[in-house]
Design brief:
Elements (H helix, E strand, L loop, with lengths): L15 E3 L2 H12 L4 E2 L11 E5 L5 E5 L2 E3 L6 E2 L12 H14 L9 H6 L4 H13 L8 E7 L16 E8 L2 H11 L3 E5 L12 E7 L10 H11 E10 L7 H27 L16 H7 L5 E6 L3 H7 L6 H14 L1 H7 L2 E7 L2
Parallel strand pairs: 5-9, 7-8, 7-10, 8-9, 10-11
Antiparallel strand pairs: 1-3, 2-6, 3-4, 4-5, 11-13, 12-13
């Protein structure tokens, strides 16, 4: 496992090494005696075949079904003195639970629940969406050793595989074990699957030859989104490139114009629902997934390194389902829109729904 050399301990930043067979046997003996805990305080019971340990020897990180658990909460300790006082935040846990329990499970048609909820899977939109997926490749170096996919999910679209086609490894990072299990099945030995926190990447400085992070950053708590971007830039090697697909949501003037009546109706409906729940003493409805979108100016102000603004996709799923239909020349409209995006990528990236932020390290 040559790739262990680019990993680092998420606690101390020190190097990691693999446990040898004797150490694994000793660890499994402690597990059998119920003398091993996760760092979040939960007992750890399954025996292990592989694990990593920091060179300081204070934390052990399991490798389960080829997935390296480098999330602080899931590190193993044999002393309750090392149990963490602060664990994963409620907003991050919400995202993790959604994708472990629902988002990365496929229906009978083979579509993941995440795509069913958040994507337009209709035939009329298919070509446009694929071309937008393909667009990401333009801003990446074509080859290298390590391509990092930050919040890879289950690699739900075959189009996503092209980004690492000429890289030796694709490092799939995610909060969801289910997502990484799906990614591992699709990539086999090409995949290095790491369960970790994007705001505390367990990779050494300048170790990654390229990265993509698609539709993910806005699911990170709003005050930590810049931290996640800084982490992606930190691990990027000199001359390497990275791409973030973000969403402006209510900061997109074009989508605000076209969706204003529908967003207004949604706002009123949600307010009435909360009012009814309060009156009926039912409490607040259960949240499904954390989301927060900053405007472009926020990142221009808070990111300490330059980036280029391009367009990924101008319109969101709601727009397409309302306005784009085969009988209303929907495919032709999307073809025209794609050509306009290619002619004016900065303008459409700023005014539309989904920009691409392109990073290149000096």
């Amino acid at each position: 496992m040559e790739w262990i050399a680019i990993l680092k301990c998420p606690f101390s930043g020190s190097d990691l090494r693999a446990l040898d067979s004797r150490e694994i046997d000793t660890l499994n003996g402690k597990i059998a005696q119920q003398a091993v805990w996760q760092a979040d305080g939960k007992p750890f019971t399954p025996p292990l075949e592989q694990a990593l340990i920091s060179v300081k020897g204070d934390y052990i990180f399991p490798i389960i079904r080829g997935i390296v658990l480098l999330l602080k909460d899931l590190a193993l300790v044999d002393s309750k003195d090392n149990i963490l006082k602060d664990t994963i935040s409620a907003d991050k846990q919400l995202v993790k639970d959604f994708y472990d329990q629902k988002g990365w499970f496929a229906d009978e048609a083979g579509n993941y629940e995440d795509a069913v909820i958040f994507e337009d899977l209709r035939e009329v939109s298919k070509e446009y969406i694929k071309k937008c997926h393909d667009r990401v490749s333009r801003y990446l170096n074509p080859s290298g050793t390590y391509m990092l996919d930050a919040a890879s999910g289950a690699l739900q679209f075959p189009d996503y595989l092209q980004y690492s086609a000429n890289y030796k490894y694709r490092i799939c990072v995610d909060f969801s074990f289910q997502a990484l299990s799906e990614a591992k099945m699709k990539l086999g030995d090409k995949a290095i699957c790491v369960l970790c926190d994007m705001t505390n990447m367990p990779f050494k400085n300048n170790s990654i030859d390229g990265f993509v992070s698609l539709n993910t950053i806005y699911h990170i708590p709003k005050d930590e989104q810049v931290t996640a971007m800084k982490e992606l830039y930190r691990v990027l090697a000199p001359k390497a490139k990275g791409v973030i697909v973000y969403e402006w949501f209510k900061h997109s003037p074009w989508m605000n114009f076209w969706l204003l009546p529908f967003r207004g109706a949604t706002f009123i409906r949600n307010r009435l629902s909360r009012l009814y729940s309060n009156m009926a003493k039912k409490g607040q409805p259960e949240k499904m997934l954390y989301f927060y979108a900053h405007p472009y100016e926020y990142f221009k102000t808070h990111l300490p390194f330059p980036f280029q603004l391009k367009v990924w996709r101008t319109v969101d799923v709601r727009f397409m389902k309302i306005y784009i239909h085969k009988a209303l020349f929907g495919k032709q409209l999307l073809d025209w829109l794609y050509r306009q995006e290619d002619k004016h990528p900065e303008k459409y990236g700023l005014k539309g729904e989904y920009p691409i932020l392109v990073f290149e390290k000096e």
